[in-house]
Amino acid sequence: MDAIEKLREICMRFPEAHEKAFGGHEPPAFRVRDKMFAMVSTGDGRVSVWMKAGPGAQDVLVGGDPDRFFVPPYVGKNGWIGIRLDVDGLQWGMIEDLVDDSYRMTAPKRLVKLLDEPDA
């Protein structure tokens, strides 16, 4: 399974998540209630995903592993992080956790509560 398919599988597990392109871009973007929580980018010739991150996460991740994490243009000023998906040794568990954080920051509280219910 390629990295975009694996990311798609992760993102589509969330309640009411759907895939909808961003503007005229071809790479997928993942949304809840039409608000984006993750988007794939290939604009710089590399495959990456951009997503929301909690306060301080951008500094820690980019500072700790700048070959894997970066500050994406346009949305980086709002704390979003970029993760390169075309590097060896992707840590999918960490990526899942970061997607979960991004979804929780984006989704309505009612949907976030569903994630914390048993059997969710």
* Number of DSSP E strands: 6
Strand content: 15-25%
Largest sheet: 6 strands, antiparallel
Can you tell me the CATH class?
Alpha Beta
Strands of the widest sheet, in order across it, are 1-2-3-4-6-5
Put simply, the count of helices is 4
> How far from one another are the termini?
25 Å
* CATH fold-level assignment: Aspartate Aminotransferase, domain 1
Mean pLDDT: 92
Flag low-confidence runs: none
Radius of gyration: 14 Å
Total tally of structural domains: 1
CATH architecture: Alpha-Beta Complex
The backbone outline, from C-alpha atoms, is globular
Give helix and strand order, one letter per element, not per position: HEEEEHEEHH
Helix content: 25-40%
> Class by helix and strand content?
alpha+beta
List the helices and strands and how they pair.
Layout: H1 3-11, E1 17-19, E2 29-32, E3 35-41, E4 48-51, H2 57-64, E5 69-70, E6 81-84, H3 92-106, H4 109-116
Antiparallel strand pairs: 1-2, 2-3, 3-4, 4-6, 5-6
In short:
The chain contains four helices and six strands; from the N terminus they run αββββαββαα.
Structure, described:
This protein is α+β, with helices and mostly antiparallel strands. It has a single domain (3-116), classed as Aspartate Aminotransferase, domain 1, CATH 3.90.1150. It is 33% helix and 20% strand. It contains four helices and six strands; from the N terminus they run αββββαββαα. It has helices at residues 3-11, 57-64, 92-106, 109-116, and strands at residues 17-19, 29-32, 35-41, 48-51, 69-70, 81-84. The chain has a six-stranded antiparallel beta sheet. A hairpin with a 2-residue loop joins strand 2 and strand 3 (35-41). The chain starts with a helix and ends with a helix. The mean pLDDT is 92.
